[in-house]
Specification:
Keywords: Pyridoxal phosphate. By secondary structure, the chain is of the alpha/beta class. It is 40% helix and 14% strand. It binds pyridoxal-5'-phosphate. Pyridoxal-5'-phosphate binds at residues 64, 120-122, 125, 148-150, 212, 217, 245, 247-248, 272, 282.
Amino acid sequence: MTSADLAGDSSTGAKLLTAAREVIPGGVNSATRLVGAPHALTGASGAYVTDADGRRYLDYHAAFGAILLGHSAPEVDDPVRAAIGGIDLVGWGVTEPEIDLARLVVEMIPSAEQMISAMSGSEAVAQAVRLARAVTDRPLILKFQGGFHGWQDAVARNVISSAESAYGLDPLSRGILDGALDATVIAEFNDLDSVRELYDRYPERIAAVILEPIPHNVGALLPDAAFIEGLRTITSEQGSLLVFDEVITGFRHALGGYQQICGVRPDLTTFGKAMGNGYPIAGLAGPRGLMERFSSAGGDVLLAGTFNGNPVSSAAGIATINYLRDHPEFYERTYALGDRIRSGLGAIAGELGIHAVPAGFGGVFALYFAEGPIRGYRDLLRDNDEAYIAFHRRMTDRGFLMLPLALKRNHISAAHTEADIDRTLEAARDVLRSIRD
Ligand code: PLP
């Protein structure tokens, strides 16, 4: 929306967006929030968000996947309020919530023996990268085309490079030293040969292979079992660390993360987003032998962060994980709702004769505007991003909020119902027909 559009609009939302642009660059605090006619939002409860002019939207955006139990879930908010009444930030020693959270993560995540807390997924990934380089004494990080691991320099390459790039830049940003970009090497997801080639080209130089086990930042490419197992074998043989970035998949797909589902144990795992149902909490977990390289345990990898492990964020993490542990039906329900929307979208696309294929896993769904099958990054380049943008815009107009970026995913929370899914499918049928015609 241009400033001129906003100036001619007398709605409360337009006034707020105009005011935001005066004091916040672009009016938003994360660039991708600007995509797709941004709104000023004033309320969020359960499966819905409300904008400044009182319009309600059924929310599949879920704050890029941070919301898992629904907005303002009392199961999390009540313990958070109680934590606010307890000890606040002291910055010395340790507090009980930090211990409880780390204990829960260690209990749930197959590869975890210890965990450090962070405030965002990007920080957790930065710690993983630095730890991997220190442990292996090697410089390079191998990531996959299309994978997104936060805004840090070490992972800023080849995030998305389809025609209508979600981020517009590859690397993601200017201001990154060439040396940092050169230290990232890129392979293709689901293609072990591309990984082997990089090991041949850079013998004993690759510190870690990092991947989203399901690359949800390009929708949902499903990993071949042989691919993930092959990565485990190659990294072990080559003396690199295998890092699962479970910032999206962690807790959302299973209490033990995707590693519990695929049965492969990475060396390091990063978490964030859904772990605290919207509160800022993230973590890096791994075996004691690696984690004790952090300076907190007398090692040589700096661990610092004023807000790390703060009681409020820790309380949110504890409450979310406890909820999931006490409600195993959460997974059954969200998986069933995910199947319902994926098969519904597939049926509608078939009926209308549109090249659109639903994808996803569990409670996450995506819609690719391309002929299937979509197995790897190259297939994604066939995506008709313009069709997705039109789909998104028209769904938003009808009160259904999805991620505004093509090749992204949408999220079903504990607060969504079958009726919500059915309403969404009805609207999607009309919108897809209008796009076709
Ligand atoms: N890793 C993955 C897989 C992500 O999707 C993201 C964010 O979208 C991050 C890391 C970075 O997390 P944060 O935005 O909390 O810094």
